[in-house]
## 1
Amino acid sequence: MYKVECWIENAVHSLDHLFTYGSSVPIERGIRCYVPFGKSRRMAFVDHSEEYDGTLESLSQKLGYPVKEIQQILDEEPLLNQELYDLALWLKEKTLSTTIACFQVMMTNKKRVKGKVKSVVLEQIIEIADESFSLSVKQAQCLRYVQEHTPISYIELRKKYPSIVKTLLNKGVFIKKAQERLSFLQAEQEVQPLKVLNQEQTKAYQLIQRKEGVHLLYGQTGSGKTEVYLHLAKKAIEEGKQVLILVPEIGLTPQMVNRVSRVFGQDLGMYHSGLNEQERYEQYQLVKQGRLKVIVGTRSAVFLPFQKLGLIVLDEEHDSSYKQDVQPSYHCRDVAVERAGFHHCPLVLGSATPSLESYAKALKGVYQMVSLKTRFGQDMAKVHVVDMSQEIRQGKDYILSDELKQRLTEVLRKKEQAILLLNKRGYSRLLRCKSCQEVLTCPHCDLALSYHADCQKMKCHSCGYEMKVLRRCPHCGSEHGFSGYGFGTQRLCEEVQKEFPKSRILRMDFDNTQRKNAHRKILESFGNHKADILVGTQMVAKGLDFPNVTLVGVLNADDGLQRSDYRSGEHTFDLLMQAAGRSGRGEKKGTVIFQVYNPTHFAIRFAIEQDYESFFKQEMVYRHLAKYPPYTSFVSFTFEGRKEEKVREIAENFQQEIAKICFSLGVAALLKKQDLYRYRIVVKEKYLENLLKKIRVFLEVTTVELQGMKIDVNPLYLE
Ligand code: ADP
Ligand code: ZN
Ligand code: ZN
């Protein structure tokens, strides 16, 4: 008999340990099975099994509880290899989640621990059975083609050699086999050579290539970071290794994807949420078999089952989409560091505005600092700032300043292009009753409803609730209507169109990019100069490279500073720097205009001067004084529920208990969201490791009800 130790599927911390079962056969680590648990059965993940010299009864007696037998084994081979298995156990310590949650985040849906195991799609492939037959010229050609393109699908081969395939099958040269369908997503194309690196790039390349460990490649947009990644990747592949290139959002980095695919052709795979389940599964298998050499992917690609990694790149490493805020609340950068360590390969963090954490580590020498100082093409565009409170005092337009209008006129006259960024979608921010002045709010959240002119609806940007515009005010019953306050991208488009009736305007925001490929179509049109002006939310600030854009205008550029969050300065600065980098990327010189209400805030001032280092210094002073990250580490616990009293009580009990073991900032009430009342407790301590250790012990023994609690380790937002 075999004694099997496994992790059980469930969500509570107190049950997150190994359970013992009996089995007549040994079971390998990483295989899933069904086990009896209480009155039902559960999925379990095997940790290990060992031979036991005795019966189930004697084992039960020895352990002091009834040991049951495993009901069913679900996999033929382990789903996770040893590296990923260990990574899951590491991840659970870092994120305070349950073991099973970590296994799940590493697998594609088809192999999730929970729920049904989905079937895989099969296809017919052709294999060579016997090459010794004598063949006609054409038949020999077909055979050679198969030799060169193995494994090849039957359908694909039949398209090329319609009748010959059948003949060769009948002859016994080929045989047909059913295999899991794994199609390459990249079309075959001409592979282009790389550019020759300049001196500075060559130095960066050599510094990184020589050494495993973490490198911060710090250089403004256009300094040639991507070109360095490509050279490093090529080298790694030549050494027979795989490469992972992580990007914040695939849809917003089409140019990066194009460049990589032009260099690596069919060796390239992609992994992101825009793929359907089958496509994701195929990419997963191809990585596992080592058939894809380079993967460009978003956050979750960091868990792909690479055989042998030679390089990891994390582009735009400061981007907040690398952090997952639900359990396991991991940061992709931390996982990348861990994997690069396992594979003894370099990890390159690239950015023009590194996160404070990474830059501080590079200054201390924990990461190697590699900087690129010169820029290809033009110097950075010049930034002009317009103080909107002045404009309004002078009775001028509160949407488009005179200076922005004048520059837009010039751009249109010269047939160049402009990007306008306004980080607010919809038409107006809120609607107020003309009689009682009450603001219309979402019935499910504590938030104002925004007016959307295109569909004549009011929408909640938090939960997605929408309703037709009301005739009567729900507060006072008046039918005198509502006035809109503040403006979003839809209103901006309308204003620009009014001012420049002949201009062609495209909009890109959450509302019109939900369908597959929507991003790509908008960006393609703009790239082909089918429009003069692109208006959009923060998504137009990321990574785009349009040489004909010579003007970028940011409206309400200091809006982000209004958030009460401790990172609001950093995020505002990043956004403005990114936006500024979109202007003047080609031959022509670019201009940038920030319209602000608070031109003296240091995040705005340093963004105008495009001075990351000064921003870093000042922001670090503030973080140090306030004892905020990176000087301390936070863990947040959020409780939510429909009954306000009950949630608050649980949160307060929790606060009392946890405050005994670490420093707590107390209970904070968050805005209601989707009918859920929410309370949050944040604890902090200088060293994360200590904090995590204490909390883990606490979670295992506490009697406070933790059902529905969300834990976020190093949360990026505290709102
Ligand atoms: P970053 O990733 O830092 O924004 P890129 O790698 O995209 O910079 O480089 C900016 C521009 O300069 C691109 O158009 C790129 O093709 C060009 N470029 C980069 N390196 C070289 C080089 N060594 N020789 C010629 N052109 C280069
Ligand atoms: Zn009213
Ligand atoms: Zn809502």
## 2
Amino acid sequence: MKRPGLLAALAAVAGVGAALDYGAPDPESQAPLAVGGKRRLVSSELLQDAISGEKLFARAKELYEIAKLGEEEYNRPTRVIGSEGHLGTLLYIHSALADLGDYYNLSSQSFPAVVGNVFESRLVIADRLAESAEPMSLTPPTEYREPVSGDVVLVENDGCDLTDYPAHVRGNIALVRRGTCSFGKKSGNAGKSGAVAAVIYNHESGTVHGTLGQPSPDHVATFGLSREEADGVIARLRRGESVDATAFVDAEVKTVETHNLVAQTAAGDPENCVMLGGHSDSVADGPGINDDGSGSLSLVEVAAQLARFDVRNCVRFAWWAAEEEGLLGSDFYVASLSPEENRRIRVFMDFDMLASPNFAYQVYNATNDAHPVGSQELRDLYVRWYEARGLPYTFIPFDGRSDYDGFIRHGIPAGGIATGAEGVKTEEEAALFGGRAGEWYDPCYHQLCDDLSNVNVTAWEINTKLVAHAVAHFAVSFEGFPERSDAVVADDGAGTYGQRVRYHGSRLFV
Ligand code: PHE
Ligand code: ZN
Ligand code: ZN
């Protein structure tokens, strides 16, 4: 953990500090509930009572102003890593916590994040524009950032083995079926075989929103393609016809230094920590007020309110960076823990998107069979809370789409709640939660319109009270919660916890 990286980065951004006026800390919310000069022990009720939607929304307004710092460079409000909007977000979180005096020990962790930008792309097959073609995240450009042409060559099997690639792939465009191994592996195999581009077609309906993952010099420009569009091409190739294609990708893959922020209570048993996190970054396309302004600000507000109380166990808050680039910050953090530090984390709770406008109350369906022991107890804690309030909830897959992934792969029990991204609300859910069936939970997911009008403050307040409940619960005691196991060896996704994991962040990788 080092701070100079972040502070130097913040200092280097002319105007970030000046553009932000946080105002004086609210004296009422800062006043400790002291008993005889000492803070009283936190309770779920007291901490929940301190949470209000109004305060959360006031923070969202500040965050939107911060996102505007990204406008100069990106022509739109954004808090994407590397932008002034993101640095402003880090500064905002840092100063909100620093205002609480020495209640928390603050640290930042700098790490290099690989970022891809596709400026322009096109795939033309047999003189027709492939409508479903989508460049994969972290794709390299085509050679000289110019169009490349060649025959489409069908790769055998799933293209996971170099022997699947016929010799005449060289200088041509490899067409590979999705499945078995990662898109990155296929792109690398195509590159090693001399292909000038690769197209990975879906084995189910629709296109593939994929990522190549960790860049490799073997990768070639790679597109995802729908099964529907691939079918016709494959039929022609199987009949022995030749099909030509032109691929064009103008893109860059670069490394950006960015920062996780961590705040840990000075009080409480440091051998037994409850940890929780949200992500401080947004996508480049918008300000990310719901994704994940909502989760990040819930954490800031809970951290601020918790500072009025004493805790028995340590509470550790994290704001991850580069979640949108593939969970990079949380992965980096967990991988950097020594086995002793790993075991100090009794449980990790993920809060990504708590205020979706067309929300459902979603609980990650984490179980002790498929995930580190304790994950299920955490799931049930959320369930009991909703049930006690007569609120409906649904289970959603715990399949690697957010920052809990690194934790479960390293043996740390985890879970969390959310309100939904690009999923479609069902009739049954509309009957339970209200809202509009047939529409996305968050119609502005990863878009410019994820702004102040894109949060449901009622859902946000409810969920932040649940965050407060979980924090207070574990801050007081881990009684009845399973001891940590010693299993801290990283799981690469092929093993114990990985079998059901198809995602790493918001994009498919296999
Ligand atoms: N992690 C996703 C994002 O930030 C959001 C998400 C979380 C989607 C959980 C589905 C389930 O874009
Ligand atoms: Zn996102
Ligand atoms: Zn998110």
